[in-house]
């Protein structure tokens, strides 16, 4: 699978999120360099505070060298609910490539994840043509 297919799958995965008025619904997929899916996660998957990237990283049991994380929404760079942001969790892993569909709206916090990841040397790719699905899943928060 290529970037567009894997990101579209992450966007679709967000539809499994339990509804929330205080957090976005996000899907994440971690894939090996050949496109093999290593782990998936979505917001509130196991706990009401889970972020999608955090849930996927917690499930992976494979070598992440060369892996890419696909997230429907920009990984968070600021977070009130837990001590580590998704950007920090990604940087603590060997993952150095991040692909997302939509920048995090400033609904809850200022979006800084993509900038933090880039500043730390990660390749960050935004595919905004897939953002309609993100907006649809989060329409209750985006007005």
From TrEMBL:
One of its GO terms (molecular function) is diaminohydroxyphosphoribosylaminopyrimidine deaminase activity. Coiled coil: none annotated. Pfam families: dCMP_cyt_deam_1 (PF00383). SUPFAM superfamilies: Cytidine deaminase-like. Residues 1-124 form the CMP/dCMP-type deaminase domain. InterPro entries: CMP_dCMP_dom (IPR002125), Cytidine_deaminase-like (IPR016193). This is Diaminohydroxyphosphoribosylaminopyrimidine deaminase. It comes from Labedaea rhizosphaerae.
């Amino acid at each position: 699978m290529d970037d567009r297919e894997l990101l579209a799958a992450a966007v679709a995965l967000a539809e499994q999120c339990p509804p929330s008025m205080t957090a976005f619904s996000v899907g994440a997929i971690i894939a090996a360099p050949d496109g093999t899916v290593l782990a998936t996660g979505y917001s509130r998957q196991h706990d009401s505070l889970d972020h999608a990237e955090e849930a996927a990283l917690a499930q992976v049991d494979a070598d992440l060298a060369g892996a890419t994380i696909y997230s429907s929404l920009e990984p968070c760079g600021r977070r009130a609910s837990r001590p580590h942001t998704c950007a920090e969790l990604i940087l603590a892993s060997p993952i150095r490539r991040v692909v997302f569909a939509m920048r995090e709206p400033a609904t809850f916090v200022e979006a800084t994840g993509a900038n933090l990841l880039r500043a730390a040397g990660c390749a960050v790719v935004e595919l905004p043509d897939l953002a309609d699905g993100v907006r649809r899943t989060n329409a209750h928060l985006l007005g």
